[in-house]
Amino acid sequence: MNELESYFRANTGRLIHKWEHYFEIYDRHFARFRGREVNVLEIGVYQGGSLQMWKHYFGPKARIFGMDINPACSTLAEERIKIYIGDQSDRSFLRTTAQDIGRIDVLIDDGGHEMNQLTTTFEELFPRVDANGVYLAEDLHTCYWPAYGGGFLKPASFIEYSKRLIDQLNAWHAQKKSALHVDDFTRSAHSMHYYDSILAIEKRPISEPSHSQTGEAQLPAFTPPERKRTRSWFRKVGWGG
Prior knowledge:
Structural class: alpha/beta
CATH architecture: 3-Layer(aba) Sandwich
Strand content: 15-25%
Number of domains: 1
Helix content: 25-40%
Number of helices: 8
Strand order of the largest sheet: 3-2-1-4-5-7-6
Distance between the termini: 50 Å
CATH topology: Rossmann fold
CATH class: Alpha Beta
Radius of gyration: 22 Å
Oligomer: single chain
């Protein structure tokens, strides 16, 4: 049991509602920020308990920001916790909030979970997350629920939207650049981690990948039959054939 889960289990303060398997995932992606001067934004304040949990977990140097459409949530602000009231599907509100916060090191989208909200929030705020930050969207089971605009393989689902980002992560290797080209996501996303109901994207400045070889070859060059049609390419990169 990590410290986040221990806090949750012992909590007698403001209400926190989380799926139990989330705590391991949080700790895996957030632990490196603990004790540092970090700005953490959680979309979806609810009863305010998770904001206090983040405040405890990240430590005394952290600043915690919450965003919610419910005006009553503004009463949950306290030292090192600031609340913004507005609609996460409002692009102007998202931009204004991001400008006010400045650097966002950790972003947790636990908001309305509707498809347009998830997509709009990602498009507006992922570029504003620090170059070495983390973007985490949770409760993505709603991507399979029609009431939230989701559905299995439905094009508007945020899960389907995010699958296309996998291609962008690998765009350096596309041979037809007109079909798949390197973009800002390719240059800023280090990795994408899918879990039950969660997508975590680790950011890091990325340059075009390179490869090299060390040691001495012990076997003669060999090209499997199914690779003969790409023999010239394999010769070019030095992978046999």
